[in-house]
Amino acid sequence: MHKGLLFDLDGVIVDTAKYHYLAWKEIADELGIDFTEQDNERLKGVSRMQSFEIVLEVGGKTMSREEKEQYCEKKNEVYLTYIRKLKESEILPGIRAFLEDVKEKGYKIALGSASKNSRLILDRLHLTEIFDEIIDGTKTSKAKPDPEIFVLGAKALGFACEECIVFEDAKAGIEAAHAGGMQAVGIGSRSRLPEADFNIPGFADMEIEAIEKALN
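Structure for Beta-phosphoglucomutase, as requested:
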């Protein structure tokens, strides 16, 4: 049996992808870039700066590092206007019950998210206290698929990497887990996340025992 569980935030606990898209869309429109929801799929699981570089690539534009940082900050302010209105009802189905259940069964849990706004989001959802550790974009220097965020999460929980399971909805996150020597559960279909060690549609009616059995 594993001892630690590491959770990505967006797409696993709450779906803020729509808000990221709206914020990036606003920046793209300002720059005259046609940025679609399909383009936005490429931004999942990567850092803010990397995301903006993808937006610029879509539009065939270049700019200085200083300009990029200014636009990234502007995007974040737009995004925060949406996040500050988050409601508990936006927690994805079954995840709160799953987190409470695994805690009762003795697992330690950590957040492993590239978001620098993770604490604000968890606070809005009243989930902050349930996590033993929070490793986010304020504590890391490398973006997924680099394993840094999950390796730090396992270390913070006090476990070896192989004693932890990662829950992810993005290809980069699955790759990061494997690079760190951890098994990864993909939140989504096998066809979308074929690299995952096990796939689940979501956390509704899901029990950790079924996941442990599938991974053994």
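Strands lie at 4-7, 108-112, 133-135, 164-168, 183-187, 198-200.
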